[in-house]
């Protein structure tokens, strides 16, 4: 998030899947700012995702709540085919933003593939979570790079977080 993707070099850091693969995360009031994106059948309207993420990042930076780049986390959750909720991890509350705290147990698994793959990943993630004796309640996605950087790196990694009971 340190520069725009208008030049010839990647703007997103190279992703290391190791810290995310098959891990359990216990969050007790983990702080995020929340915004939403309109979509049609789970596909964001053109340019809406970039504008929303840019706005959220600017608010976080302006209030000095932005995380270190290696701690950046942007989760998306689709409550319907028409809306996606975005949750950006921040270091402190951000004035003017919707500040929310997530708590609970989350299991993460890394996937690599096209943006059309989440329905397949949800099924795989459900089986993975159940193999651990847990029941998935809700799924969040962390797409680790922008589409342009995914092309440059040759991977479109996504971390799926399953909130479990």
Question: How many DSSP-defined strands?
Answer: 7
Largest sheet: 7 strands, antiparallel
Discrete helix count: 3
Tally of separate domains: 2
Structural class: alpha+beta
**What share of the residues does DSSP label as strand, in percent?**
35-45%
In which range does the helix fraction lie?
10-25%
Distance between the termini: 33 Å
Mean pLDDT: 91
Low-confidence stretches: none
Q: What are the SSEs and their pairings?
A:
Blueprint: E1 23-40, E2 43-44, H1 48-62, E3 74-80, E4 83-89, E5 98-112, H2 118-131, E6 136-143, H3 147-153, E7 157-164
Antiparallel strand pairs: 1-2, 1-4, 1-5, 3-4, 5-7, 6-7
Model description:
The protein is α+β, with helices and mostly antiparallel strands and 165 residues long. The protein folds into 2 domains: 27-103, no CATH class; 104-165. Helices cover 22% and strands 39% of the residues. It contains 3 helices and 7 strands, in the order ββαβββαβαβ. It has helices spanning 48-62, 118-131, 147-153; strands at residues 23-40, 43-44, 74-80, 83-89, 98-112, 136-143, 157-164. Strands 1, 2, 3, 4, 5, 6 and 7 form a 7-stranded antiparallel sheet that branches. Strand 3 and strand 4 form a beta hairpin. The N and C termini lie far apart (33 Å). The mean pLDDT is 91.
Quick rundown:
This protein is an alpha+beta fold.
Question: What features would you highlight for this structure?
Answer:
single chain, 165 residues, alpha+beta, 2 domains, 7-stranded antiparallel β-sheet, 3 helices
């Amino acid at each position: 998030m340190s520069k725009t993707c208008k030049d010839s070099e990647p703007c997103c850091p190279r992703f290391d899947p190791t810290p995310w693969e098959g891990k359990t995360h216990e969050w007790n009031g983990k702080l995020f700012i929340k915004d939403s994106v309109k979509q049609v059948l789970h596909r964001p309207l053109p340019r809406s995702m970039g504008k929303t993420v840019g706005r959220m990042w600017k608010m976080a930076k302006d209030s000095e709540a932005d995380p270190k780049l290696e701690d950046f986390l942007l989760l998306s959750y689709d409550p319907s085919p028409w809306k996606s909720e975005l949750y950006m991890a921040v270091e402190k509350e951000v004035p003017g933003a919707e500040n929310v705290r997530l708590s609970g147990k989350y299991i993460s698994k890394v996937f690599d593939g096209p943006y059309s793959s989440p329905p397949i990943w949800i099924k795989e993630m459900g089986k993975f979570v159940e193999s651990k004796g847990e029941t998935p309640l809700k799924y969040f996605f962390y797409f680790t790079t922008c589409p342009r950087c995914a092309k440059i790196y040759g991977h479109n990694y996504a971390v799926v977080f399953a909130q479990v009971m």
